[in-house]
Amino acid sequence: MDPIIEVVALLLGFLGWVMVGVAIPNRYWKTSTIDGSVITTSTIYENLWMSCATDSTGVHNCREFPSLLALSGYIQASRALMIASVVMGTFGIVCTLIGMQCSKAGGDNLILKGRIAGIGGVFFLLQGICTMIAVSWYAFNITQDFFSPVNLYGTRFELGEGLYIGWCSAVLAICGGSCLLCACNFARDEKGPYPYNAGARTVYSVAANSKREAASTYDRNAYV
């Protein structure tokens, strides 16, 4: 495996993992602006954990969702998938660090290190898939409610910045995992130094002795 590809894949997976941690607590997963007078204009925004509102004076009021069971199914699923994404990313980083050629944690067995790095790539792929499903599912419900004819006069939410952070995180994690899986060599060991062959040395010594005997014979015939 190319060490440069290993480093690039690790950086991509690590950045994706960090961005998942940024997306989860981000408050702006969906936003809505209610226009009115200067006093009544307010902005409503929500994420996986709470619903907040701010008015034109800059006062923020947040309320956490009171009950887990009372939440919509897609919010509960998105929570679970995002938490699973963080766990998968953690395992991916650890496995990749152990499986890198420049790391001494996995020993000198290049086949074993390649397999460990490949497992890290699988974890990165699972991280990206979990994040992509959670964010896309949440965005689908926002757009469905926005264009619903039943909700013509209700509050309409739009996509927030937290969703875009999640999408970027998923793409980075999938790219990092794909690089590791494509670059890892599971079937055979890397090329190393040639093994010692005693037979080759013996043949070489016999050939050398024959050459010396031929030279000494030629010298004796030259004096006759």
Summarize the structure in words.
With 224 residues, the chain is of the alpha+beta class. The chain is 60% helix and 10% strand. It has five helices and five strands, in the order H-E-E-E-E-H-H-E-H-H. Strands 4-3-2-1-5 form a five-stranded antiparallel β-sheet. Helix 1 packs antiparallel against helix 2 (73-99), helix 1 (3-23) packs parallel to helix 3 and helix 1 packs antiparallel against helix 4. The longest helix is centred in the middle third of the chain and has 37 residues, at 110-146. The N and C termini lie far apart (65 Å).
Radius of gyration: 32 Å
Gross morphology is elongated
| DSSP strand tally | 5
How do the helices and strands follow one another from N- to C-terminus? HEEEEHHEHH
In the predicted model, the low-confidence regions spanning at least 5 consecutive residues are 189-195, 200-208
How many angstroms does the end-to-end distance come to?
65 Å
Query: Which structural class do the helices and strands define?
Result: alpha+beta
Number of helices: 5
Largest sheet: 5 strands, antiparallel
What percent of residues adopt helix (DSSP H or I)?
Answer: 55-70%
Q: Give the DSSP E fraction (strand runs of 2 or more residues).
A: 5-15%
Q: What is the typical, i.e. mean, pLDDT?
A: 79
Strand order of the largest sheet: 4-3-2-1-5
Give keywords.
single chain, 224 residues, alpha+beta, elongated
Question: Can you summarize this structure?
Answer:
Helices cover 60% and strands 10% of the residues. It has 5 helices and 5 strands, in the order αββββααβαα.
